[in-house]
Amino acid sequence: MTKYYAACDLGAESGRVMVGELSKGKLSLMEVHRFPNVPVKEKTSLYWDIPQLYQELLVGLRKAGERGDDIAGVSCDSWGVDYMLFEKDGTLIPPTYHYRDPRGEAGLKQLLKHVPWETIYAETGIQQMPLNTIFQLAAEDPKRLRSAQQLLSIGDGFNFLLSGVAKMEVSMASTTQLYNPVEKDWSSRLTHALKLPSKLLPPLAPSGTVLGPLLPQIAKETGLEETQVVASCTHDTAAAVAALPATGEHWAFLSSGTWSLMGIELKEPLINDRARELNFTNEIGYGHSVRLLKNIVGLWLVQECKRYWAEREQDLDYGVLTHLAASSPPFESIINLADPRFVTPGDMPEKIAAFCKETRQPVPRKPGQFVRCVLESLALFYRRTLKEIEGLTGRKILRLHLVGGGAKNTLLNHFTANALQIPVTIGPSEATSAGNVLVQALALGQLKSLEEARQIVRHSTVCETVHPHAVSWEAAYERLEKLI
After folding, report:
1. How far apart are CA 163 and CA 157, in angstroms?
2. Which residue among the candidates 236, 273, 315, 317 is catalytic per the annotation?
3. pLDDT at position 207, please?
């Protein structure tokens, strides 16, 4: 039986509405609407334009309805950690802060005065990053929290606006650093430490929960009269990992984009002193699987460099920048991506140059040199992270599954294979939307298991595999270790 699903995929740079067709054991995806997601800067604050995003989603759903397909389900997914606050009548309380807003640093310092970091990690298994929800909330205005009736993640917030049902899906809840993956519930210890009103955190929903039909007005406006709203995997990485064409257990995944998220899939959380010291995180996936992963500053550095050059009338597209990087000499300069300066917006070429100067390395001068420095440093960080994963779990990794927008960067893909010395399988190209759709199909009964869903991906997609060449990255890796 052929069924159709709408996936509303919200990224930190752009959003899109995709229609997925599931028929005869194969999945096909069609983009019906794409739109930019541009944060708003006001003085020192940075926040998201939620009303504009909502209107774009409605445009996409109207276009989906105009196709005439009998769309069974719709679900929104998004990046993690950020949240919307709602009043009792469902009105959004502005602003919805961006995870790069500087308030997170203050929240982290404030909370750690009252709760030891060891306690926070033991409760949640989530790595320490100032952008985490827990630290954003520690910096919140108490009056704003008291006036709020409900806190929802970005993806869950849009599902609420579509259905009227307020729940937090567990893959997203796990990114907040307020969820205990062992107890499978909100951490009462941490919510008490934050003095959060008990009403604020919503009920939890397993991945693939049917929330209910579209609100009548939206159903009428979009023509999707029989469509159910599903809490699929509302965290985009959880959705992408659900759609990997993986088999067995000797594989790792890398979601490459603004951020790089690298890890493996486990059955239970891994929370111990060594995982905490290495800053690994335990996020939840479909079926309460665990993604043991590390967040690495990703192609954000290239994006920021590109933006900086464009503002100075040197607007080079990503293809040109990658070509220039490929033509630049290898391993001239390497940067420590964990350095805090690389997380914040600003003059990224100057930050890279300053780091190289401080560490007595050649300072990049041309765009190609800057981009090559970033890409090689990323590949080396992937190698370091993979070694840490193998050490933590005792599991030998024989293949890397690579998804996300960064998978389009063929130069970085080859760097990654050579640095890791294992095959790198690219795709599927729309892994997040595919996972969103497949988990909806699981929720609505068209599919029976995650294994069946992944088999459909294998049958639907021809994935390229990049094999490593005999290019030595040993000396460069030793340089990175010294920098760290």
Report:
1. 10
2. 236
3. 98
